[in-house]
Amino acid sequence: MPADPVSGAPPPGDLQLLSLTKRFGEFTAVDDLDLVVPAGSFFALLGPSGCGKTTTLRMVAGLEVPTTGEVRLGEQDITWAKPYKRPVNTVFQSYALFPHLTVYENVAFGLRRQGRKEVTEPVRDMLRLVELESFGARKPAQLSGGQQQRVALARALINQPQVLLLDEPLGALDLKLRRQMQIELKSIQGEVGTTFVHVTHDQEEAMTMADTIAVMHRGVIEQMGSPAELYESPRTTFVANFLGQSNLVPCAINGRDGGDLVIDAQGALVRMPAERAQVHQGKAWLGVRPEKIILGSPGEDLPGNSLGEARIVDVSFVGVSTQYLVRTSWGQELMAFEQNTGARPLMRAGDQVHVRFAGAHAFLLDHDQDARAGVDEDSAA
Amino acid sequence: MTSSAGAPSVAPELAPDGDASSPPRRRRSSAWFLLLPGALWLVAFFLTPMVQLVATSLYDPSGSEETGYAMTWAWGNYVDALDFYLEPFVRGFAYSAIATALCLVIGYPLAYAIAFKAGRWKNLMLVLVIAPFFTSFLVRTLAWKLILSDNGFVVGIAKTLGLIADDGRLLATGFAVVAGLTYNFLPFMVLPLYVSLEKIDHRLIEAAGDLYSSPAQGFRKVTLPLSMPGVVAGTLLTFIPSAGDFINAQLLGDTTTQMIGNVIESRFEVGDYPAAAALSVTLMVLIVAMVAIYIRRAGTEELL
Ligand SMILES: Nc1ncnc2c1ncn2[C@@H]1O[C@H](COP(=O)(O)OP(=O)(O)O)[C@@H](O)[C@H]1O
Ligand SMILES: [Mg+2]
């Protein structure tokens, strides 16, 4: 631990948001949100910009008053607590460092306001943690973006909040620095053990950093789970498209056979485990991730489900893998990624292939949802 | 100076004289040329009157408009000026210091409200702050004469409330002069304060709240320090002109409330130019000295 524990602090608990709603006039920015952030976890709130992430964080920090709903921290109801009375600190989207104070005084700010007289040691420890020991005397304007980001982190962490809120903390950094800071942030979180709520619109960032991700869209949580869970078993078309890419084939459910569902996918009969389906009858979207699609030669007899024959329309070689775009017999274009293991020859545009997938890797989504939801959202911006 | 990256010792020999050195020289002379209008303006309208003023302050004090003035290097003019008029000097600085403090106390909340709380009324409020400038300084000060007159409602209310004696008055008192100064120079305080408050990023104040500052602490530790350039500019813009003002003391005061501006003005009236000039120069030197000390103490260069 970088600094002495604040004596008498209540034991940290889970952060709970109960039916949290925020309206700005007619517009509902956060809609009846329920969320539990386990104590000590690295939690990511992921969603396209404008979906209500900042508003949610601001309600937790006390900078915005919820229209309805509750914010609880462990046993405490902090919905109406003043921001300066909450054991919660924020790393702001634009850092919001105090320009008139030195790095040292910025970091010491929270402790001084809490009436701590002796701040030298905790500030030094904190600056060491973020590797800015020799920068204490500088003004924020004399630091690079990455250094400012670290000051913002140190300034918040030194108070040993029960929950640290990070609003797109890496958004202003270039890609290389962002990757480096992702690793640093994660290791700092492991070191201090504080609950981190990390807001981001970058799905890759959320996946690499977080224990648990909540995917937010238009003011509601679409799905919450571990990165692998969200990726392997998305429950909505938005999650399927926003986290990675998905092929969504319109299909109809014929019936059940033991633990499997039997599905008519554009004339091809396929089977998949019923527990991977969100719907169990009628029309649906059959989802398969591009790397789960297996392209075989037309004659080849491989296990798994067949989606019939298709023609390769585009090939992109990206080093570790090759990305194929194939047009199926019913005219849909599907993405297929294949590792360049060297075991199979590269195929060329115009080649005829047999499209297969394993039912255990597929997922079945509600047909009423928009198949293109989340496709062009700014997840990489 | 050679701007090329090549070997510096060789370049001048290789290059014909004109080619190597003329472009920088031409550039330098055109920079001077651009400075010329400003420099001429300064010489004509600042330096010349300045020299004339200092010279006048050293003329023989026994001269008059009829007999003319002789340059006798009469340094005694300065001694006499301070000797005879120390009281209006001190009073003038005291009045303008009080007026400046009042302007700050009234102007800061006003500027704060306009910058942070006015919302869509912001522009209207700014126009209202500037609106008094649409009429003359003199007319507005005369209006104050009416407002504070012995039969006016202000005196009436003050008497009912027992703030002044039944035969007391406001006009022709130091109070009236300070009130007039405060009123007249308030916009000069409000506008720079507004500008520096307006520039403050609201997220900094939120960040202070997030870091355990109550609203009062947040103001003291973040808003106030960040608005210091406005405080310094506003106090200077209020203090400097009010220290030399004579209209307010003339219209709202009496002989016991004379400021140094009134003395300078009356010396001019009677043709005592050497004394008027010596007082003016002294006033100027004192103000410059005070401002220099103030700016150093306020430490505005520390900000940002
Ligand atoms: N103070 C406000 N007044 C009106 N609308 C707001 C306000 N703050 C945010 N919004 C709106 O709420 C929505 C969500 O905003 P925000 O929480 O900042 O999104 P995110 O952080 O996910 O990009 C946006 O459409 C935004 O325009
Ligand atoms: Mg945001």
Textual characterization of the structure:
The complex is a heterodimer of chains A (381) and B (304). With 381 residues, chain A is of the alpha+beta class. Helices cover 21% and strands 35% of the residues of chain A. Chain A has 8 helices and 20 strands. In chain A, the strands form 4 sheets. A 6-stranded mixed beta sheet of chain A has the order 6-7-8-3-9-10, sandwiched between helices. Chain A has a 5-stranded antiparallel beta sheet with strand order 13-12-11-14-20, with no helix packed on it. Chain A is elongated. Chain B has a domain of 184 residues: Orthogonal Bundle (MetI-like fold), CATH 1.10.3720. The radius of gyration of chain B is 27 Å and the shape is globular. Chain B contains 13 helices and no strands. The interface between A and B is medium-sized, with 25 and 20 residues. The site of magnesium ion has 5 residues of chain A, from helix 1.
Task: Please tag this protein with its features.
heterodimer, A: 381 residues, alpha+beta, disordered N terminus, B: 304 residues, mainly alpha, MetI-like fold, globular, binds adenosine-5'-diphosphate, binds magnesium ion
**Rg of chain B to the nearest angstrom?**
27 Å
Describe the main β-sheet of chain B briefly.
Answer: none
Based on Cα principal axes, name the global outline of chain A: elongated
**SS-based class of chain B:** mainly alpha
SSE layout and pairings?
The complex is a heterodimer of chains A (381) and B (304).
Chain A: E1 15-24, E2 27-37, E3 42-46, H1 53-61, E4 68-73, E5 76-77, E6 88-91, H2 103-113, H3 120-129, H4 145-157, E7 163-167, H5 175-192, E8 195-200, H6 203-209, E9 212-217, E10 220-225, H7 227-232, H8 237-242, E11 247-257, E12 260-265, E13 268-273, E14 282-288, E15 294-296, E16 305-317, E17 321-328, E18 333-339, E19 352-357, E20 363-366
Parallel strand pairs in A: 3-8, 3-9, 6-7, 7-8
Antiparallel strand pairs in A: 1-2, 1-4, 4-5, 9-10, 11-12, 11-14, 12-13, 14-20, 15-19, 16-17, 16-19, 17-18
Chain B: H1 11-14, H2 17-56, H3 76-117, H4 122-130, H5 137-147, H6 153-160, H7 174-198, H8 202-210, H9 215-226, H10 228-243, H11 247-252, H12 260-269, H13 273-298
Helix pairs in contact in B: 2-13, 3-7, 3-10, 3-12, 3-13, 7-10, 8-9, 10-13, 12-13
Magnesium ion is lined by residues 53-54, 93, 167-168 of chain A.
